[in-house]
């Protein structure tokens, strides 16, 4: 039992690899459908989630705290969906939100630019120059997105357990390599790694419950004890603490909530 995240560029055949790996393993395969789940669960337009996840940082800045809300909702939906393992997720952000979970196999799929250009030309019915421009723009925006939001470069191979180049390797070769790698002992779910993921799920759900009122809240969870840090001045802190605890303790699995404050305004250090 494991979780597989596949990071890919457009027209890199990463989607095809993900679907075939899932079929071979008997896992579920998720990507865009997760956006629909998140939009329904948190009652926000799907198009805004799509923009928050895929648009360039300059566009994301227009959302301000709205952007933070959308990304928070997506993270909560993703973590809840993969919590029970046996999942292949392909698309943006999977390996970021699952950082530190040992039973996650993180894969990056690459393909030659000319092969990608050819596929875009065929599928979109456009010329080579236009296809090349679109692909380069898309690659750069995705790269800037991860740098802006997570401070990491998606092109950095150290982020992944496997980097597979679809050229000499075929899609079928990539599927076989992933299939055999994920069966290794180090990628199997343990009681400890499952507990770490469960804590992440709880923290993400609390963050989703708080983000509209407290968009800068920081949340951590361990064994049912939740710690929330928010920005506030001393005069409003007591009321906020009560409200935060009330929201947090509605999330299943929360036994105790501790709230602390970063001083702001006249009380800021």
Quick overview:
The protein is of the alpha/beta class and 269 residues long. It has 2 domains: 185 residues, 3-Layer(aba) Sandwich (Rossmann fold), CATH 3.40.50; 55 residues, Histidine-containing Protein, Chain: A, CATH 3.30.1340.
Q: Supply the number of helical segments.
A: 11
Structural domain count? 2
Number of DSSP strands?
Answer: 8
Instruction: Kindly identify the CATH topology of the largest domain.
Output: Rossmann fold
Order of helices and strands: EHEHHHHEHEHHEHHEEHE
Mean pLDDT, all residues? 85
Radius of gyration, whole Å: 20 Å
Give the neighbour order of strands across the main sheet: 2-3-1-4-5
Q: What low-confidence regions span 5 or more consecutive residues with pLDDT below 50?
A: none
The biggest sheet amounts to: 5 strands, parallel
Structure description:
- The chain has about 270 residues and is α/β, with parallel strands linked by helices.
- The protein has 2 domains: about 5-185, P-loop containing nucleotide triphosphate hydrolases (Rossmann fold), CATH 3.40.50; about 215-265, Histidine-containing Protein, Chain: A, CATH 3.30.1340.
- Helix content is about 50%, strand content about 15%.
- It has 11 helices and 8 strands.
- It has helices at about 15-25, 35-40, 45-55, 55-60, 65-80, 95, 115-125, 130-150, 170-180, 190-210, 235-250; strands at about 5-10, 30, 85-90, 105-110, 160-165, 220, 225-230, 255-265.
- The strands form 2 sheets. The chain has a 5-stranded parallel β-sheet. Strands 6-7-8 form a 3-stranded mixed β-sheet.
- Strand 6 (about 220) and strand 7 (about 225-230) form a beta hairpin.
- Helix 2 crosses helix 5 (about 65-80).
- The longest helix is centred in the middle third of the chain and has 23 residues, at about 130-150.
- About 35% of the residues are buried.
């Amino acid at each position: 039992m494991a979780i597989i995240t596949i990071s890919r560029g457009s027209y890199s055949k990463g989607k095809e690899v993900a679907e075939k790996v899932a079929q071979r393993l008997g896992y579920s395969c998720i990507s865009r459908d997760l956006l629909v789940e998140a939009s329904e669960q948190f009652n926000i337009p799907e198009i805004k989630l799509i923009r928050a996840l895929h648009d360039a940082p300059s566009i994301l800045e227009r959302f301000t705290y709205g952007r933070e809300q959308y990304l928070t909702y997506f993270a909560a939906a993703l973590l809840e969906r993969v919590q029970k393992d046996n999942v292949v997720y392909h698309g943006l952000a999977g390996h970021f939100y699952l950082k530190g979970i040992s039973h996650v196999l993180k894969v990056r799929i690459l393909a030659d630019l000319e092969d990608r250009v050819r596929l875009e030309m065929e599928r979109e019915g456009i010329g080579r120059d236009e296809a090349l421009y679109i692909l380069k723009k898309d690659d750069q925006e995705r790269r800037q997105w991860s740098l802006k939001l997570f401070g990491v470069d998606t092109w950095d191979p150290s982020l992944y357990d496997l980097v597979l180049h679809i050229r000499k390797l075929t899609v079928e070769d990539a599927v076989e390599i992933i299939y055999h790698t994920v069966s290794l002992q180090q990628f199997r779910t343990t009681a400890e790694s499952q507990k770490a993921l469960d804590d992440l799920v709880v923290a993400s759900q609390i963050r989703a419950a708080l983000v509209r009122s407290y968009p800068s809240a920081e949340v951590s969870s361990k064994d049912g004890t939740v710690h929330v840090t928010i920005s506030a001045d001393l005069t409003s802190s007591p009321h906020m603490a009560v409200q935060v605890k009330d929201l947090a303790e509605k999330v299943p699995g929360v036994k105790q909530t501790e709230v602390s404050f970063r001083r702001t305004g006249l009380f800021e250090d």
